[in-house]
Amino acid sequence: MTEKAPVVSAVETSSGEVMQLELLGVEALSEALQRKPKIPPRYDWRPHPGRHVNVGKGLMAKVWDKDSGYSRNDRDILGFFMAHSPEGGSPLRMNFKEIAELLGVRQDSVAASVAKLHAGGLLLLKEEIGRMRFFAPNPRAAFDGPAVDQLEATKAARHPVVPAPALEAKPKRTRKAREAS
After folding, report:
1. CB 69, CB 164: distance < 8 Å
2. For residue range 55-79, what is the model confidence (pLDDT) as tens digits?
3. Range list of β-strands (E), 30-176
4. How many CB atoms lie within 10 A of CB 22?
5. What single DSSP character describes residue 87?
6. Omega of the bond prior to 139 within 30 degrees of 0, cis?
7. Is the pLDDT score of 106 beyond 70?
8. Rounded-to-integer distance, Cα 14 and Cα 23, Å
9. ω into residue 163 within 30 of 0, thus cis?
10. Residues 133-139: contacts with CB within 8 Å, 24+ apart?
């Protein structure tokens, strides 16, 4: 009777590949475990290769619902932030004018949508430099980076609100108020 090699399965941590080593024997196991890990490939889904964002589908379905309180413009701005924000929850360092030019909307529309998305917790204020404020998507809604980092980032992130909270309307300046100033 021949002695069977032990049944061993191993997962290569760099690629996630499961290797069945029962046919290879103990020597193959030690050899496989001593190999240098490969650099994991970047996403290469053509025609648009590159990073991908992990999005909370349940929350996003609520945001895209017609009764969510978020307008089409608000959703466009949120999508813009999800698509253009740097990895790891870093803020998008673009001003409202730059965003407005890329989207073909007015700068005050961008400002109003960012204010509503921030009030609802979908965009979080990450950095202030003087009067400039920079935002990033809430990691509970969308995160660009490893799941381990997303779990860590959600510990400090507030819960987004749907339907959208009502913002306090700024008082309109009347002609008399403008003339008086």
Report:
1. yes
2. 999 999 999 999 999 999 999 999 9
3. 54-55, 123-129, 132-137, 142-143
4. 13
5. G
6. no
7. yes
8. 23
9. yes
10. 134/91, 134/92, 134/93, 135/81, 135/91, 135/92, 136/81, 136/85, 136/89, 136/90, 136/91, 136/92, 137/78, 137/81, 137/82, 137/85, 137/89, 139/89
Which residue, 145, 125, 149, is CA-closest to 135? 125
Mean pLDDT of 103-122: 96
Beta strands in 31-131 (DSSP E): 54-55, 123-129
Tokens of 46: 């053509």
Residue with token string 């061993």: 8
DSSP bridge pairs for 134:
127
